[in-house]
Amino acid sequence: MTTENNTVKYYVGDLCYVMHDCWDEVCGVSNLDNEDWDYELEDGRKFILFSTTFGDGQYNDLEGNPYSVDSGTIGAIKVDDISDLEGLVKAKELGLGHIHDFPDDFAWHDCSFDNGVINIYNVSIDTGSYDEEMSYEEESESEEDS
């Protein structure tokens, strides 16, 4: 859906909620190493997909909007490219992800992953930095001291 000011509506969030009907293919074409994040399905639909730092959970963008994650990933796809409309309606109703307006020339190079922060155009979602992760050894020592 392109609007008058040359923007396109994108769903940003865990794509498993809105691409359930083709999730096996999504997983098959994605390597999830956060070195590559732009992918394309056989039918030509394109999407962006990143792994979160700590897997499933709830993460917030810099505006405080929550993003629920059940696949350990956060991504973006044009709303017009979502064929699982029931999933989209449910995701919007439950606040699992959010619809954002991006420029019609938005592309993979407008995205990045930096120390746990997923940047999709002007949406930045902090999924936790690697520095925050406590190793199993440190955790065990902490529990023993208690």
What features would you describe in this structure?
The chain has 146 residues and is of the alpha+beta class. The protein has helices at 23-29, 85-94, 136-145; strands at 7-13, 38-40, 46-51, 57-61, 66-69, 73-78, 98-103, 111-114, 117-120, 123-126. The chain has one domain. The strands form two sheets. It has a five-stranded antiparallel β-sheet. Strands 5-4-10-9-8 form a five-stranded antiparallel β-sheet, with no helix packed on it. Strand 8 and strand 9 form a beta hairpin.
Task: Name the features.
five-stranded antiparallel beta sheet; 146 residues; 10 strands; 18% helix
In short:
The protein is of the alpha+beta class and 146 residues long.
Structural class, please? alpha+beta
Roughly what fraction of the amino acids lie in strands?
25-35%
**Count of extended strands:** 10
Q: Which residue ranges are poorly predicted, with pLDDT under 50 across at least 5 consecutive positions? A: 132-142
Total of domains: 1
Distance between the termini: 56 Å
In one word, what is the shape? globular
Spatial order of strands in the largest sheet: 2-3-6-1-7
Compressed to H and E, one letter per element, the order equals: EHEEEEEHEEEEH
Largest sheet entry: 5 strands, antiparallel
What's the SSE blueprint?
Blueprint: E1 7-13, H1 23-29, E2 38-40, E3 46-51, E4 57-61, E5 66-69, E6 73-78, H2 85-94, E7 98-103, E8 111-114, E9 117-120, E10 123-126, H3 136-145
